[in-house]
Amino acid sequence: MIELIEVRKKYNRLEVLKGISTKFNQSECIALIGPNGCGKTTLIKSILGMVLPDSGEITFNNKSIFNETDYRNYIGYMPQIGKYPENMSIGQIVEMMKELRGGHLSFDEDLYKAYKLEQILNKRMRTLSGGTTQKVSAALAFMFNPLVYILDEPTAGLDPISAEILKDKMLLEKSNGKLILITSHLLSDLDELVSEIVFMQEGELLIHQTVDELKTKTGEEKLSKAISTILKAQLK
Amino acid sequence: MNRIIKFVILDILRNKIILFYTILLAMLSFSMFSLEDNESKGLLSLLNLILLNVPLVAIIFSTIYIYNSSEFIELLISQPIKRNKIWISLYLGLNTSLIISFIIGAGIPILLYSPNLIGIILIFIGCIISVIFTSLAFLCSIISRDKAKGIGMSILIWLFFSLLFDGLIMFLLFQLADYPMENWIALIAALNPIDLSRIVILLQLDLSAMLGFTGAVFKQTFGTGWGILFSSTLLILWMIIPFMISLRKFNKKDH
Q: Mutation test of the interface with chain B: which of A8, A87, A150, choosing the one with the most B Cβ atoms within 10 A?
């Protein structure tokens, strides 16, 4: 579904992506993990066309995304830190997004309802706490029935109950055959959800394996332990 | 495209600064016309005030507005909307709002006191100057990621074109007085959009005494007909070129 071929990106002299090649398929839930500053967000933003790679190619359904925008109709994106116009209220933001992504007859309002956003529709974005902003981002990412969900640290700012609601929603969408791409630090969070692991370090892709492979290979039951075993083995 | 322009215009028109700007323009225009006993004198005083204030407000308001819209822009960029469309809509939205408030604030008094060709040309010039300095604001705000730097740059641009430029030309002419440089200096003078606008109006009024130094040299070199054609072309280029450069940069920018 999404394919990356030798994607490279430099910020001034700092090489953030050093030739990433990989492929993400439908009905998978892929966790993109790695230490801070390893290029996860840059990779995600390259797929979204927010960051323009210096070289390499990214394709969506076998079509290059270079200079394209229509493919983003099929992506729901939840940023790490949602930035919204401060003076707009939640209701206005939702209305605006619905207008901008026109052509939808029905909206997926599961999260919107579960987070009870309709009760605070008149609140301005600048008055919201970080967690509430994350809820708005999540509700918007899921609203337009996309084929691919790209979630950057989705559970980072959420309280446990809200995070649980989001995880349940992700499980549901995964079983609907959607592709879910998550970046996260909290591996324990992802245990029951994730089917493939992509591990990045300093702009390079070190591991891309399915969770089952990883577990049988290392003999560990827990995802976090399996990964640390693999990493230790690689370091030697 | 219309939706984004609509959001931008509604957002700006709710802004108190734009309301203040409209009222300021209206007060200036009415007081200029009532202070001077003759309408064409009033028009001239107003021209000078407009050429001082309108560029200042247009460039600084637009620069700040673009920086403050960075969240809005980032939100739109991750959506299925072309980058060109986002930037052009922002440009059209800002220009429309500034022009609306100019026409309400200065246009109505001008038409009331001086409903003739010169009055209409003055209104046009005000709109054109708003567009030119908005276009420059787009350039400033894309060059620097830092808001303070960007606003500083836009203040410098305004200062340069409205105060420093004429002095610089004068200095050049005196320094090079021994050489036949007048024509060249007329060309250099034409690089300032504020001077150009003044020249367009004054060539119409045929008031050589009011042309100012640059204007006098300009008129001597180009004559009235060609002068107007030449300066209008340059004004149009000023509206388009800075914005086009910023558009190219925006299309290559990482968010």
A: A87
Q: Tell me the pLDDT tens digit for each residue of A123-151.
A: 998 899 989 999 999 999 999 989 999 99
The CATH number linked to A17 is: 3.40.50.300
Decide if A43 contacts A208 (C-beta within 8 A): no
Chain centre distance of CA B87: 19
Residue A175 within a domain = yes
* C-alpha gyration radius of chain A: 18
Number of other residues whose CB lies within 10 A of the CB of residue B27? 12
Residue showing tokens 């968010």: B255
| Backbone torsions φ then ψ of A139, nearest 5 degrees | -60, -40
> Is residue B27 very low, low, confident or very high in pLDDT (cuts 50, 70, 90)?
very high
pTM of the entire structure? 0.88
Domain that holds residue A202: 2-82+146-235
* Secondary structure (3-state) at A145: coil
Is residue A105 in a domain? no
> Looking at the 3D structure of chain A, how many domains does it have?
1
Residue A90 resides in a domain: no
The candidate with the shortest Cα–Cα distance to B133, out of B88, B166, B94, is: B94
pLDDT digits (tens, 9 = 90+) for B56-101: 999 999 999 999 998 889 889 988 889 999 999 999 999 999 999 9
Give chain A positions within 8 Å (CB) of B250: none
Return the residue matching tokens 């969900």: A149
Judged against a pLDDT cut of 60, whether residue B208 lies above it is answered with no
What's the rounded Cα separation, in Å, for the pair B95 and B131? 6
CA pair distance B13, A232, nearest whole angstrom: 60
Q: Is A108 part of a structural domain of the chain?
A: no
Residue closest to B173 by CA, chosen among B195, B191, B188, B158:
B188
pLDDT digits (tens, 9 = 90+) for A160-195: 899 889 989 988 998 888 999 998 876 666 777 888
Chain A segment 45-84 residues within 8 A of B by beta carbon are 45, 48-52, 69-73, 77, 79, 83-84
